[in-house]
Amino acid sequence: MAAPTAVVLVFVAFPVFNALLFSLGFTGGINSTLAEIGQDIISTPSFAVFENLFHDSMYMRDLGATLIVTFASTVLTIGAACVISIILRLYGGYLGKLLSILAVVPLFVPVVIASWAILTFYDGTGFLRSVAASLGFSAPTWGFTLTAVTIGSVWTSLPFAVLLIAGAMQGIPDALLEAAHDAGAGNWQAIWHVLLPLAKIPLTIASTFTFIGVLGSFTVPYFTGPNSPTMLGVDLSRYFTAFNRPQQSTAQAFVVFAFASVAAGLYLWATMHSNEQTS
Amino acid sequence: MKGKPVETNDLRALGETHQDTHGIIRGSRRLHHHPWHVVILVWGVAIILAFFILGPLCWLSLHAFASNWTYPHLLPEGWTFHWWTVVFSDPGLGVAIHNSLVFAPLTVAISAVICLPAAYSLSRIPFPGRRVVLVGLFATNAFPKMGLFVTMSTLFTALNLMNTVTGILIVHLLGTIVFMTWLPAAAFSAVPRNLEEAARDSGAGWWRTFLTVTLPIAWPGILVALVMCFLASFDESQGTYLVGAPTYMTMPTEMYSLVLNSPRQVAAVFSIILTIPSVVLMTLARRHIMGGRLADGFQIR
């Protein structure tokens, strides 16, 4: 286990720690090169970089947009994954299998392609607008909006959520469902009192992965999203490359990381909990 | 009536040589006859999902063969292979394809050498820091990728790794570590110990036991890890762009400039080419991915 840990320590932990120092105003050491070429560098140890960020109304607007898109995408992804998994478990048959295969298709498609495909499908000259126009009414243009970012995020996150949740629900014994039915439960009650509670831990894991994935995403919002407000992942890269403000960029990484850590904590709690149950 | 489908299911489960028992492909059965409104509901979901998932892909694919396409027509004015010759005659795109096909296998090889022994020991040696290691590796996923690359570029600038193959390989490697440790670790853990012990008892050495018992049983999980790892490297764009562009362009990074600077049809052709390796590899590992190997690997045991 030494080798991957070493790689992570050298190329993740060390730069991250170093970046934390950089964002807190320590501009010496290996940060000195960036501090020289970057603009608006604060070289006194303080929280000034973060304070400036949180007083920047544009950034706060992006933060708000990112959280809304992330929450919406997570809820929609997990909701859709639950519907698909429940149909697969209770309805089954060829239609159920077809649904599960459809849901896993995005795993086969590179994210760059997916984002581009979704943009062309929903933009001003896309399929949705073309169909609406030929039917004689005007559909909204979703290309370069947060709606497109949400659609793209759900599209790319769905396979993993379905694999986790459907996997768990397929593992629930028929006997439990039959017992519920014998006790007079209808399909809805069986879903609410048997399927969902027994899939609680995979549900948590899937939600966390989706949340973290969308929160820090770059490619989907870069292709499909608006210039402003934009997602934090795009901001990060823009501050670094286009604006040449590396210090603000690293500080933003920690803002995203702070939100991701909360979700990661939930994930860890869920998996540890599942270990206690199975062992 | 009620018992029969269960028996067929059980027989099928017994017939399976691999242990993908929690997979979503496992046979489901009908508990009841479905009333018509449930049938309509399920068909409705199926149609919406097909539209949502396949719609954008079909729409994009059509562009690759379209001569000219004006809004709001639902089909292009004519069909042509012209855009394919444009893509194949562009030297820059050829280099990008070449680079991608070199970086991805290299990344898989390096990642396997670094991570597989670690995955094995994580599954076999109970030591107190085990979970800390697994969780620490996971932290590479929780920190936003773009943020990680930005912070790493500080180090890369200091080490002169910007615009180098080594730098790109390190970026790609970081995206694969979680797959390459967690998935094989779960696969090794799932190998029944008594089988290994039986092999050892009948005189097989450690290597022989590993090669003839452990590896074949754990192989599906490792295969899924290798495929995911290849695709992670093949699809990686943000970090490669930051570290490698414009000296080293790969297919995904080339896509960024294509989308901005070329006709839609060229990007569509390139998209199809870029998707081929994914589809081939995923189809090879599809049974195991759907069989639950991917999902199982992400639960810390």
From TrEMBL, chain A:
Domain of life the protein comes from: Bacteria
Family matches, as PANTHER family: INNER MEMBRANE ABC TRANSPORTER PERMEASE PROTEIN YDCU-RELATED, INNER MEMBRANE ABC TRANSPORTER PERMEASE PROTEIN YDCU-RELATED-RELATED
Gene Ontology cellular component list: plasma membrane
Protein keywords: Cell membrane, Membrane, Transmembrane, Transmembrane helix, Transport
Family indicated by similarity: Belongs to the binding-protein-dependent transport system permease family. CysTW subfamily.
Membrane disposition: Multi-pass membrane protein
Keyword Oxidoreductase: no
Keyword flag Zinc: no
Native organism taxonomy: Bacteria, Bacillati, Actinomycetota, Actinomycetes, Propionibacteriales
The protein's name: ABC-type spermidine/putrescine transport system, permease component I
Species: Propionibacterium cyclohexanicum
GO biological processes: transmembrane transport
Domain (ABC transmembrane type-1) ranges: 63-267
Compartment list: Cell membrane
Automatic annotation (TrEMBL), chain B:
Entry annotated with the keyword Cell membrane: yes
Record keywords, A-Z: Cell inner membrane, Cell membrane, Membrane, Transmembrane, Transmembrane helix, Transport
Entries under CDD domains matching the protein: TM_PBP2
Transmembrane segments: 36-62, 101-120, 132-159, 165-188, 209-234, 265-285
Membrane topology: Multi-pass membrane protein
One Pfam entry name: BPD_transp_1
A Gene Ontology biological process term: transmembrane transport
GO cellular component: plasma membrane
Keyword Hydrolase among record annotations: no
Residue stretches making up the ABC transmembrane type-1 domain: 97-285
Source organism superkingdom: Bacteria
Major localization listed first in the record, in broad terms: membrane
Subcellular location: Cell inner membrane; Cell membrane
Family: Belongs to the binding-protein-dependent transport system permease family.
Record's protein name: Putative spermidine/putrescine transport system permease protein
